[in-house]
Design the sequence.
């Protein structure tokens, strides 16, 4: 069982070593009056906790450059920054998510760089500096499956070592898994998180095939 961490005020959660704010927290309510994320980036999704739990067991090298794609409020970026001292770049198409990410990063004392971009179009030059790519709940439309696959292919060509994506188990995610299994060393597992409460999901850990 995890150590009990008392939170300083209501509507703050604590999970995997980071503090999070829920939708009823005054800071979030104030931000929501000014910024309205419109591609589902309006909360912390359960798959981000599945990713945190998985990375707790199958971690990243400390201090590595890591890109989070479809970051939303960036809980996974903040976790990697805090837990692995990762140098994070958080990518999202929707610029309205970044003020929420900034508050979360500040609250946890980590720095996260933003990149407002379509993750399916991130260029090889931008991928080349990254050791890992992570993402949670980012394959929810048919139109994302193949472009996300091409991004992973580009990333491995550019020198990325590993891509880890979690999902609640959407059909589009399983299509993506099939695509990855044809080309790479892709391990799909069921996983669950226990903080701040129980969430179940899937994790796909992808590495380039050994030649
Ligand atoms: C379901 S939310 C997940 C957010 C976060 N990863 C989490 O688990 O809490 C999906 C996120 O992906 C972003 N997104 C969707 N399509 C995108 C694309 N093509 N390029 C970059 N970001 C995208 C959305 O803006 C949103 O923030």
Sequence:
């Amino acid at each position: 069982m995890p150590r009990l961490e008392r939170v300083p005020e209501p509507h703050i959660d604590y999970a995997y070593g980071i503090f999070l704010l829920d939708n009823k927290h005054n800071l979030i309510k104030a931000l929501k009056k000014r910024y309205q994320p419109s591609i589902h980036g309006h909360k912390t999704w359960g798959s981000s906790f599945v990713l945190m739990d998985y990375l707790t067991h199958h971690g990243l090298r400390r201090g590595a450059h890591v890109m989070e794609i479809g970051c939303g409020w960036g809980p996974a970026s903040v976790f990697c920054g805090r837990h692995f001292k990762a140098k994070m770049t958080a990518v999202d198409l929707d610029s309205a998510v970044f003020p929420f990410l900034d508050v979360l990063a500040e609250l946890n004392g980590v720095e996260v760089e933003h990149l407002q971009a379509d993750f399916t179009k991130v260029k090889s030059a931008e991928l080349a500096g990254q050791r890992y790519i992570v993402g949670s709940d980012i394959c929810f439309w048919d139109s994302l499956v193949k472009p996300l696959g091409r991004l992973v292919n580009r990333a491995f060509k550019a020198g990325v070592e590993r891509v880890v994506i979690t999902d609640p188990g959407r059909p589009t995610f399983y299509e993506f898994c099939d695509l990855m299994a044809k080309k790479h060393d892709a391990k799909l597992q069921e996983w669950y998180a226990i903080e701040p409460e129980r969430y179940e999901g899937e994790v796909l850990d992808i590495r380039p095939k050994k030649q």
